[in-house]
Design brief:
The chain has 85 residues and is α+β, with helices and mostly antiparallel strands. It has one helix spanning 33-50, and strands spanning 21-27, 64-71, 74-82.
Length: 85
């Protein structure tokens, strides 16, 4: 349920159908971020290419996204890439 107080200027709420993603986790992603984050994408795309993945955008499905969180005082980033299953 959305409340008036939850609405933020410039924020769009979107929904997508269930989808399969490959994920890679980066430990301390913001230490040398311009190397670690692009390399994570490169590695996951190499893996998916070796498995026969073909990039194909679909309506209402995010092609990729990132999730940043802290665990035991260490920052992590999960990089998700859509897998056309």
């Amino acid at each position: 349920m959305e409340y008036e107080s939850d609405r933020k200027p410039g924020v769009e709420i979107a929904e997508q159908k269930e989808a399969d993603y490959a994920v890679i986790t980066i430990r301390k992603p913001f230490e040398n971020a311009f190397e670690r984050i692009p390399n994570a994408y490169k590695k996951i795309m190499q893996y998916l290419g070796a498995k026969g993945f073909k990039e194909k955008a679909e309506d209402n499905i995010l092609s990729y996204y990132e999730y940043v969180y802290d665990k035991e005082k260490i920052t992590y980033m999960d990089v998700f890439v859509y897998v056309n299953g």
